[in-house]
Structure to design on (666 residues):
């Protein structure tokens, strides 16, 4: 059974643009309109945030978007309801990103089953330990053809990166610097790290995330990998918008063109 | 003292993977993996090094003032018809048990070559204890504290600043201990190489629950020795302690965990009543989940969002509980009770008038449940008096019955 993430990377090796947006943000029912605009204006992949009250790996912008989404009434139950028929309109690969606690409470198997039912392709759960995934959950994710994407950072050792490469499916999420999301660290300093990653010749494609916000940073990331992931800058671009579609169109144009 | 040896294999101690039964572990994002892995690989080796133990012992004795007395509370004993002893952690330097752990962790941080220290704090006791040891060792110190707690614990904020620490308000979420902890973890993610995070309670990712428990285990080690000297008995019949994250309780229980005759009683913060919607009684209101990288019991919504707890005491205002305690609760090894704000206040006024000791609001929760346990007259009961009440004077005075100071 083929997965949309694999199909994407089979056809597109460079400049893959993955955009993160918190589900139920800015308003509860914006989840689908945001996805439609992202697809229409040129994103290659969509990462939907499952909002959590205590997102440890995220900075204030994404945390605030989560808080707002939760206040709007977003939950896993509501999200799966919103995604019920989304495959009639969206053909891009879609990932769900979030923290383990709400997923555990929902039930891992139940969660995977729902993802498969609605047509989600992959999941990012930064606080799910790789060992526990391998020993307890991997068969369930595989049964539902759901790719679990792991992160690597500049501090991750080569041995561990290689191990992550064997466990991860779809692609590897390379965090550009040791930071929470939305921090402005100089990407130039990550040059050596990107080159090191490149030289490892990993089995999985690599997308670089954290600190990517515009054309220059996206191109820098894309030149060392298969593409980049933008979250915080996108949330900023739509948090106070009066016209969602226009803001998304302009944002993506700004990243892809000048 | 001797830092407790490895006790893998005991039913109530951490296993090789960092679990107590089904609780514990290290549910950390990859960004924290190197820091936590470094600690996991090194902490037992460092703790068992005789030179480390010597330095730890010397500081606990000469700087903290240990051993802390085990005081027979005569008038309290008469009132509750049992032999009640107070373990006087309130007499430690900086006024609470917290300093046992910060001394241990600062020595560990130095051995790991760290130059910058971060910490979270609720009531401010752990923040003060961390700022203190950083001043002692000349290390940079940043303390995260919820904005609401900064307001309600002003004297401790002033102490931390005078000690040279930077106090950073946590403005997200409920703006209390949970959020201070989130901000400290985020700081650690952003500063993975030079920084050690001195976590203040027996919670968080493995090895923190075990490491903090071992540093605090000096409390029960001393209780055992002092009790034998005073009564000829090897063990007490009861050990009672308050629980937020659970570090003073973990320390007070440690050497009695495998002594089934010793009844362990944990007292959580009931707030305005367990079912009032304003409570921090985690075992009564919580479900299995993950908080601050530990799988444990925590207060959460049906959708898995962590809820905002409530207690009059900033130190107990936490929606989770350390994994050791979740295990003690589930196995029935410890009995969990809870005390309301009002009961804790009354217990504080009572101890003050009966024994001339003003306890911390946190410790008062433990004292409040003396009335609820059916003791026999010869039962030896040890209550961990985890801290002193100086920081709570404003609350005590404000709530004094009639506010006249007369008829308490």
């Amino acid at each position: 059974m083929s997965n949309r993430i694999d199909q994407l990377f089979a056809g597109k090796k460079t400049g893959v643009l993955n955009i993160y947006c918190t589900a139920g943000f800015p308003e509860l029912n914006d989840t689908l309109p945001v996805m439609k605009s992202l697809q229409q204006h040129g994103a290659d992949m969509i990462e939907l945030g499952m909002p959590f009250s205590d997102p440890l790996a995220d900075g204030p912008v994404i945390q605030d978007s989560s808080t707002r989404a939760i206040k709007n009434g977003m939950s896993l139950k509501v999200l799966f309801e919103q995604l019920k028929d989304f495959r009639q309109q969206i053909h891009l690969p879609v990932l769900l990103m979030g923290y383990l606690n709400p997923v555990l409470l929902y039930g891992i198997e139940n969660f995977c089953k729902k993802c498969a039912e609605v047509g989600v392709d992959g999941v990012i759960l930064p606080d799910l330990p790789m060992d526990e995934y391998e020993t307890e959950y991997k068969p369930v994710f595989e049964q539902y053809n759901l790719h679990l994407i792991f992160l690597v950072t500049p501090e991750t050792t080569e041995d561990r990166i290689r191990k992550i490469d064997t466990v991860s499916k779809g692609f590897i999420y390379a965090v550009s610097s040791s930071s929470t999301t939305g921090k402005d660290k100089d990407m130039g300093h990550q040059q050596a790290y990107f080159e090191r990653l490149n030289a490892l010749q990993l089995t999985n494609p690599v997308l670089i995330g954290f600190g990517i916000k515009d054309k220059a940073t996206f191109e820098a990331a894309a030149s060392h990998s298969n593409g980049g992931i933008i979250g915080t800058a996108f949330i900023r671009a739509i948090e106070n918008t009066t016209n969602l579609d226009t803001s998304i169109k302009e944002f993506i144009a700004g990243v892809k063109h000048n | 003292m001797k830092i407790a040896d490895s006790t893998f294999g005991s039913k109530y101690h951490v296993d090789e993977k960092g679990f107590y039964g089904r609780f514990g572990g290290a549910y950390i994002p990859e960004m924290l993996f190197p820091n936590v892995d470094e600690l996991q690989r090194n902490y037992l080796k460092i703790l068992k090094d005789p030179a480390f133990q010597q330095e730890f012992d010397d500081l606990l004795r000469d700087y903290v003032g240990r051993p802390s007395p085990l005081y027979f509370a005569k008038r309290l004993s008469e009132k509750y018809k049992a032999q009640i002893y107070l373990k006087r952690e309130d007499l430690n330097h900086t006024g609470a048990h917290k300093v046992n752990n910060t001394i241990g962790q600062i020595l560990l941080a130095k051995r790991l070559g760290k130059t910058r220290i971060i910490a979270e704090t609720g009531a401010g006791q752990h923040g003060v204890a961390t700022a203190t040891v950083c001043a002692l060792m000349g290390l940079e110190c940043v303390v995260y504290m919820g904005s609401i707690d900064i307001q309600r614990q002003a004297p401790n904020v002033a102490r931390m600043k005078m000690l040279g620490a930077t106090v950073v308000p946590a403005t997200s979420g409920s703006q209390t201990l949970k959020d201070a902890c989130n901000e400290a973890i985020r700081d650690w993610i952003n500063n993975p190489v030079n920084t050690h995070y001195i976590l203040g309670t027996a919670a968080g990712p493995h090895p923190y629950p075990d490491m903090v428990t071992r540093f605090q285990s000096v409390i029960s080690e001393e209780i055992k020795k002092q009790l034998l000297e005073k009564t000829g008995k090897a063990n007490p019949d009861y050990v009672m302690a308050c629980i937020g994250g659970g570090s003073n309780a973990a320390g007070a229980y440690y050497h009695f965990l495998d002594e089934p005759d010793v009844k362990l009683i944990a007292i959580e913060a009931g707030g305005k009543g367990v079912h009032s919607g304003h409570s921090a009684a985690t075992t009564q209101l919580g479900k299995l989940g993950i908080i601050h990288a530990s799988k444990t019991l925590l207060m959460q919504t049906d959708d898995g969002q962590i809820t905002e707890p409530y207690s009059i005491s900033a130190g107990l205002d936490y929606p989770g509980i350390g994994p050791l305690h979740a295990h003690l609760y589930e196995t029935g090894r410890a009995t969990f009770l809870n005390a309301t704000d009002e009961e804790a206040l009354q217990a504080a006024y009572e101890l003050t008038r009966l024994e001339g000791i003003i306890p911390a609001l946190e410790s008062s929760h433990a004292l409040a449940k003396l009335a609820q346990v059916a003791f026999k007259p010869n039962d030896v009961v040890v209550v961990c008096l985890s801290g002193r009440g100086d920081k709570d004077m404003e609350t005590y005075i404000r709530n004094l019955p009639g506010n006249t100071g007369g008829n308490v």
Notes: The longest strand of chain A covers residues 16-22. DSSP finds twelve helices and nine strands in chain A. Chain A touches chain B at residues 52-54, 56-57, 59-60, 63, 67, 70, 75-77, 99-106, 126-129, 132, 150-153, 155-157, 160, 175, 178-180, 183 (CB under 8 Å).
